[in-house]
Amino acid sequence: MIDFSHNFNKDCKILVTGGAGFIGGALVRRLLIETKATIINLDKYSYASDATSIDEVLSGLGSVANNRYKLLKVDLRSESDTALAVQMADPDLVMHLAAESHVDRSIDGPSAFLESNILGTFNLLQALRDHWERLPEDRKQLFRLHHISTDEVFGSLGSKGRFSEITPYNPRSPYSATKAASDHLVSAWHHTYGLPVVLTNCSNNYGPWQFPEKLIPVVILKALENQKIPLYGDGANVRDWLFVEDHVDALLLVATKGVCGRSYCIGGSEEHSNKQVVESICKILDEKLPKGKSYTELITYVTDRPGHDKRYAINPDRITSELGWHPSKTFEEGLITTVEWYIAHRDWCEKVSKRSGYFGDRIGISTAN
Ligand code: NAD
Ligand code: DAU
Prior knowledge:
This protein is 45% helix and 15% strand. By secondary structure, the protein is of the alpha/beta class.
């Protein structure tokens, strides 16, 4: 982990949107532990939200840290609430992660993605433009919006090549199309209105506290419950995996040292097919919780995701050479940590499943909305 304690002083106010989600939560925890800044977490509290991990950090840090943390339950789809929240937060730095994030859900119900990811980003940009223009000159010079996006905006790769900052946009799912739109809005507000921005496009994250609808927690929990492990299509689709804390390192580097107006691609250089990922999880479970026969016997090939992108891979040369970022964990190490965490936190998984009403059923194969 990189030490960021010197980067944010006690007068600095950081607005994190989506801080009750998986990556936003990891970011808020790091900011609380490693800086003296005030952290304002703006989140609408959706099915995917949970603040247990932040509460744990706050109770460990005591009352001074509690005074540095504010939660604003706000939905970015509301123009007036967003404007008011930005006014109240009065931020020096904004890290924008709030979004609907699950591809399968975007296939069943794309409108929620348009509303949160496009309209929500537009409302935030308008509110921030107003805020930035009114700041005194010294704070105005230092202000920055960091827009957090995905490699999925670049589309799908064949067996060769990697995405980089100059790859043309070619989103192919409702989710990635809305994230691409939000990236374009952020760039447009920079070029047209001068709003100081940086953008990042990251590959697949995994690690503790991820809502159990994404591949890695789904597989671990299905295996622990002795249920069929669903592998979409032929299991040959490839993703480039990054441990969430390494993503947070990259985000903090870009937010503090990235060149204004630039985008940075972030990836773990850990390409694995879904079949390899699932088999690796089963192997770890075979060692940690042996049960007579291998967990691999639960692997079941199921109907493919419509429009399933074949392969993602990131060329991280820019963030590596300009900012000195490297992931600290290999996929093998991160996966063991993650499997151990889910084994130890099945009560948390049950809690968030019950609260959200999502119990691991297959989604994303409906064709009508
Ligand atoms: P997540 O679904 O776990 O969390 C998203 C959070 O955003 C939730 O707490 C949700 O309540 C909040 N949110 C959604 N719409 C909102 C709205 N209208 N107003 C206020 N809050 C809202 O997602 P995540 O996996 O933590 O991803 C965070 C960001 O990082 C997203 O922008 C996503 O596109 C991007 N990203 C994710 C990955 C990944 O692998 N998970 C990889 C690259 C980029
Ligand atoms: O690439 C970054 C993106 O990674 C982020 O922008 C998204 O927010 C995040 O959800 C993730 O998108 P993916 O679609 O790649 O992640 P997901 O975990 O849904 O699926 C990973 C791969 O595993 C994908 O090829 C589909 C497959 N899959 C998924 C699930 C849930 C299965 O085979 N079985 C499953 O049960």
